[in-house]
Amino acid sequence: MTIRSTVAQALVRFLAVQFTERDGERRRLIGATWGIFGHGNVAGLGQALLEHADDMPYHQGRNEQAMVHAAVGYARQSNRLATHAVTTSIGPGATNLVTGAALATINHLPVLLLPGDVFATRPADPVLQQLEVPYAADVSVNDCLRPVSRFFDRINRPEQLIPSALAAMRVLTDPVETGAVTLALPQDVQAEAYDWPEEFFAERVWTVRRPAADPAELAAAAREIRTAGRPLVIAGGGVHHSRAETVLAEFAAATRIPVASTQAGKGSLRWDHPQDVGGVGHTGTATADELARTADLVIGVGTRYTDFTTASGTLFENPDVRFLNLNIAPYDGHKLAGLPLVADARGALAELTKALAGHRTADSYVTEYTEDKERWEQRVDACYEADEPDVRPTQSQVLGALDALVDETDVLVNAAGSLPGDLHRLWRARSRDQYHLEYGYSCMGYEIPAAIGVKLAAPERNVWALVGDGTYLMMPTEIVTAVQEGIAVKVLLVQNHGYASIGGLSESVGGERFGTAYRFPSDDGTFTGAPLPVDLAANAASLGMRVLRAKTVRDLRAALAEARAADTPTCVYVETETADTVSGPPPAQAWWDVPVAATATRSAAVKARELYERHVSTRRRHL
Ligand SMILES: Cc1ncc(C[n+]2csc(CCOP(=O)(O)OP(=O)(O)O)c2C)c(N)n1
Ligand SMILES: [Mg+2]
Predict the structure, then answer these.
(1) Which residue windows are coiled coil (predicted)?
(2) Using a 6 Å cutoff on CB, does residue 440 contact ligand 1?
(3) DSSP string, 517-529
(4) Top mutation candidate among 499, 509, 513, 532 for ligand 1, by most atoms within 8 Å of CB
(5) Pairing between strand 339-342 and 411-414?
(6) Most CB atoms within 10 A, among 17, 277, 505, 506?
(7) Beta-bridge partners for 549
(8) Atom 5, ligand 1: residue with shortest CA distance
(9) Which ligand is nearest to the CA of 471?
(10) Eight-state DSSP code of residue 127
């Protein structure tokens, strides 16, 4: 039996019946499709989505990049068992996907991209928005998506959809390979009819596998842990992807090995678990970073070891330090010349706990990190507290006000600016998925659309997008989508008139904050004049959001509580006071390599270079 339909109709029909399964849990793989229509998808996929409105939910986006962020937010909240598809027109609609695709791929989060493409039959080239490449007729702008996709194909003939759609599902559901998957769809092919074998549309279940550890690798790993005096676990995003949090908590409690976390891994243990020592690396806690400096065995679990984690190769100072890397991806398992343990984190951690029965770290080690952690928590309390409630809050006091309000069901979404560092150092994660930091790509603009995706995956949760003013300006667009669909996300908008983060970084690398404040030009041609008369609260309100303006700490507490109780999209707008060294968060506990000008006439850069060279000289290559 065959079924006659267009390529676009067949694709939508196929996507609606794909499922994932893991640990007995079955999820629909493609929960919905986002789309912005133009030529290249309006007649093909647009028409197909209309025909399939009953079995393929549709969300109307405002910006293609933002649609990918929403899909990624949904995928992460769904533990990678489900995601969304995103369809675009050709040309600019399609290339707007590139940033979102890179973000998805870097963070190992599945998302299906369906950009329209130029005519396969080429009857009247160039069509509107077509890139003409004189030496390569098969290149279109969609080829930009190749390096940022884990699978890419262009469907030039209808029957080609069958193997390609199956390959796309394989990659989306593969815990090692997953990321952005792109099926570029020439607009003429989308509308073309074909006789599809009926079996193509049968329900299909994709097992998200949990590969077990190799016995030899497991035995070697257990031996390594038994002989270590100062072991430290670094929990990365893989702990969450594998849903290994409970097993990790048991492993840590049994062995008393402290657990530090990367941005993606934070929340792996609740903050008050005795072995949780908080964030590690450049934005880490003093407790975790001191343990990292002195560790003789670093046990990476599901981490990619980015430069923020390793303090650009300077953090692990113990001359005898060794690495043991539990990772489902061999690529990451072999990093830092470590002993690999290539396996699913949850299964392998359970096996390790068994193999290490009776083994625990020394009492003196436990006392050391427990006391250190208590000291750190006092520092967090000090910068969360606001003795004077009738003044403008600092950013840490904003976090303190939120901390006092939320419970374990709230989700915080953030990606860029000074908030990620403050959150990594300070935030007390109360549940495994409360802390949703996109720091693989640290993409300004992720927050609001991703919060929408999270809320779609977990409608019962309070979902907060934490955004700086610079970030807000980059991508407020999806507020309109939240308003349109009544998706009650909360936006906490922190106004500090520009890039506090990059301003501080610029100052530390001799850049003198050049081009990082939102100010009028001054006489010397730099933008250091008066602040701009920009009203972002009015802007958010103009897009249809309810906006609560908070001037003081007292206002802020009330506004946050009101927003939390609201069942419509609500924004809390607060202008922050620049923190001094007493009221601000603790400074960076470890370095981050941002190269400084080797020659300069201005003294700030000359001084910064001297310091830079001292830091560079401490970098190690682990072999
Ligand atoms: C899309 C994108 N462009 C540029 C950057 C580099 N960048 C990182 S943080 C930042 C400034 C963020 O400003 P804001 O949101 O106001 O946060 P603040 O630093 O003031 O806390 C910039 C430009 C980025 N991460 N993402
Ligand atoms: Mg700012």
Answers:
(1) none
(2) no
(3) B-B---TTSSS-S
(4) 499
(5) unpaired
(6) 277
(7) 573
(8) 444
(9) 1
(10) P
Alpha-carbon gap, residue 66 to 73, rounded angstroms: 10
Q: Where are the domains of the chain?
A: 2-207, 215-375, 385-497+532-575
pLDDT tens-place string over residues 463-482: 999 999 999 999 999 999 99
Start-to-end C-alpha separation, the chain: 60
3-state DSSP call for residue 620? coil
* CA–CA separation, 579 and 68 (whole Å): 35
Fold of 215-375: Rossmann fold (3.40.50)
Instruction: Tell me the three state secondary structure of residue 219.
Output: helix
Tokens of 349: 């951690």
Separation CA 412–CA 63 (nearest Å) = 22
DSSP string, 386-434: -S-TTSPPBHHHHHHHHHHH--TT-EEEE-SSSHHHHHHHH----STTS
| C-alpha 415 to ligand 1 mean position (Å) | 9
Domains 215-375 and 385-497+532-575 share a fold: yes
Long-range contacts, 528-536 (Cβ 8 Å, 24+): 531/497, 532/497, 536/469, 536/472, 536/473, 536/493, 536/495, 536/573
Say if ligand 1 is within 6 A of residue 442 CB: yes
Residue 419: nearest ligand to its CA?
Answer: 1
Closest CA to 51 of 94, 93, 5, 84: 5
Res 582: pLDDT: 66
Can you tell me which atom of ligand 1 is nearest the CA of 471? 15
Q: Tell me the fold of 385-497+532-575.
A: Rossmann fold (3.40.50)
Nearest partner of 413 among 477, 491, 469, judged by Cα: 491
Cβ–ligand 1 distance for 447 under 6 Å, the answer no
* Residue 474 alpha carbon, nearest atom of ligand 1: 1
Instruction: Give every residue of the chain whose pLDDT is below 70, as ranges.
Output: 581-582
Ordered alpha helix ranges (H), 232-317 = 237-241, 245-255, 286-294, 307-310
Read off φ and ψ for residue 558, nearest 5 degrees: -65, -45
Task: Tell me the two tokens of residue 245.
Answer: 């949090």
What pLDDT score does 525 carry? Answer: 84
Cα(149)–Cα(30) distance, integer angstroms: 17
Q: Which CATH class is domain 2-207?
A: alpha beta
Q: Which of 63, 424, 501, 516 to mutate to test the pocket of ligand 1 (most atoms within 8 A of CB)?
A: 501
